[in-house]
Amino acid sequence: MAKQEDVFKKVVSHAKEYGFIFPSSEIYDGLSAIYDYGQNGAELKNNIKQYWWKAMVQMNENIVGIDSAIFMHPTIWKASGHVDAFNDPLIDNKDSKKRFRADVLLEDYCAKLEDKAQKEIEKAAKRFGESFNEDEFVTTNARVVEYREKQKTILERMAKSLTDNNLADVKALIEELEIADPDTGSKNWTEVRQFNLMFGTKLGATSESATDLYLRPETAQGIFVNYLNVQKTSRHKLPFGIAQIGKAFRNEIVARQFIFRMREFEQMEMQYFVPPGTELSFYEEWKQKRLNWHLALGLGKENYKFHDHEKLAHYANAASDIEFKFPFGFKELEGIHSRTDFDLSAHEKHSGKKLQYFDNERNESYVPYVVETSVGLDRLFLAIFSNSLKDEVLEDGSERTVLSLPPALAPVKAAILPLMKKDGLGEYAEKIFDDLKFDFNLIYEEKDSIGKRYRRNDALGTPFCITIDHDSLIDNTVTIRDRDTMKQERVAVADLRRIIDEKVNFRTLLSKI
């Protein structure tokens, strides 16, 4: 645990030191769980958005993108169920005065059980070597079976209690398991109560005439209320999808773990409209498609797993999370949900407007069903950033910190580094910079030794360093250094654009999906 905490602290520290993420309003002592993206963070974030948008919209002929408003008619949130049901179970520790989500306390307890099961599996794998049969072991080993059965029992009971709004049983379960405040060890808990997560605001010139509004807690409803407009103007037949990237706001009970859980965050969502009765097959299809999209990033297949929901949201008939192994354990990265026709039917009822689709093949009108894919942009940023940050010991015994981001996502694609400013090297380097800047985001550096500049760009995640020396003035060649291999190669200046593009173009990711 201590090692995980150290890794996470390093992630947070590196993000600030290299201009990726800053605490918001820091000179005024900040705001809890609100962060600003710095110059390099903004670039990385925008590149992640591009990767998602290209894969979701550009690569699918039947998916289009929109950008809906943050402020929406208040009845929308009544229709969607957010006014009545968008709650988290809240519990306080009487001794420490700290507030927790009751379901998260139970999920964290189950995660520890799974960690114990994994340790048993790892020990057996080491003991038996190549002859180890994991499938057989996990079904026959008494400890692993016990750990996983206990997990299943806890999660099923919690799901039923939350569905039935039996909050007393949620507290009883916490007490039976002797779950303590993770910081103080106190087991002195209050009753569990529901807490609505929406931020309220007002629209109007005066307080007397102002309309009560909410900051949107999700981007999906902006898609649903525009479904008919998009379908008619795009002339798409079912199945078709609508994608959106946008801000959402939730008054989280416990906002924690850096940018993993924030009160202001960004979502990348796609709602896929399908004929009734076909939704579960499309649900399975999109589960695999979305996993493939993540795997193309090269962060390691072992760092992903599916988690099927025991407790379904009020709108769903199937739901699963793609979980990622963050420095603090496996946590939700993306959700894939079969939302049925709940949203469109609810908006049809509350608005009095028909939101049906006429299916020529079926010769009937119906409200489409929906399959949703929803990934948190900030969580994805954290997954990529934390997985890419590494400390390496080199052959000569020296160490370096490298941020081995997927090259297409790297904030800066190449650093232009004249060996020195004088003797015309600076002017020649600037010409290279001016030629390549139309195609790539670059930085120009002439301060410090070339070794220090290499290390700085390794830590920044820059895929290439291009060094200009005196020979460059004679033969129009430069030294290009690869971030990951540290291999240096002499190449013609005329070939730089092609060499860089081959590695950093989005094609390198999209072709792997």
Describe the structure.
The protein is globular. Strand 4 and strand 5 form a beta hairpin. It contains 18 helices and 23 strands. Strands 3-9-10-16-13-12-11 form a seven-stranded mixed sheet, with helices on both faces. Helix 2 (39-58) crosses helix 13 (377-388), helix 5 packs across helix 8 (167-176) and helix 7 (142-163) runs antiparallel to helix 8. It starts with a helix and ends with a helix. With 513 residues, it is α+β, with helices and mostly antiparallel strands. The chain has three domains: 1-70 and 213-389, Bira Bifunctional Protein, Domain 2 (BirA Bifunctional Protein, domain 2); 87-196, no CATH class; 394-510, Anticodon-binding domain (Rossmann fold, 3-Layer(aba) Sandwich), CATH 3.40.50.800.
Secondary-structure blueprint:
Elements lengths: L1 H16 L3 E3 L11 E3 L1 H20 L4 E3 L8 H6 L2 H4 L1 E6 L6 E3 H27 L5 H7 L1 H22 L3 H10 L16 E4 L3 E4 L7 E4 L5 H5 L2 H8 L5 E10 L14 E11 L4 H17 L8 E5 L9 E9 L2 E12 L1 H10 L5 E3 L4 E3 L2 E8 H12 E5 L5 E5 L10 E5 L6 H12 L5 E3 L5 H11 L3 E5 L1 H6 L1 E6 L5 E5 L3 H9 L2 H4 L3
Parallel strand pairs: 3-9, 19-20, 19-21
Antiparallel strand pairs: 1-2, 4-5, 4-6, 7-8, 9-10, 10-16, 11-12, 12-13, 13-16, 14-15, 17-18, 21-22, 22-23
Average residue-wise pLDDT: 91
Highest CATH level, the class of the largest domain:
Alpha Beta
Summing up helix and strand content along with how strands pair, one would put the structural category as: alpha+beta
Strand order of the largest sheet: 3-9-10-16-13-12-11
Stretches where pLDDT falls below 50 for ≥5 residues? none
Mind telling me the CATH superfamily name of the largest domain? Bira Bifunctional Protein, Domain 2
Count of helices? 18
Total individual domains: 3
CATH fold annotation of the largest domain: BirA Bifunctional Protein, domain 2
Name the beta content range. Answer: 15-25%
Main location: cytoplasm
InterPro entries: aa-tRNA-synt_IIb (IPR002314), aa-tRNA-synth_II (IPR006195), aa-tRNA-synth_II/BPL/LPL (IPR045864), Anticodon-bd (IPR004154), Anticodon-bd_dom_sf (IPR036621), Gly-tRNA_synthase/POLG2 (IPR027031), Gly_tRNA_ligase_bac (IPR022961), GlyRS-like_core (IPR033731)
Subcellular location: Cytoplasm
Subunit structure: Homodimer.
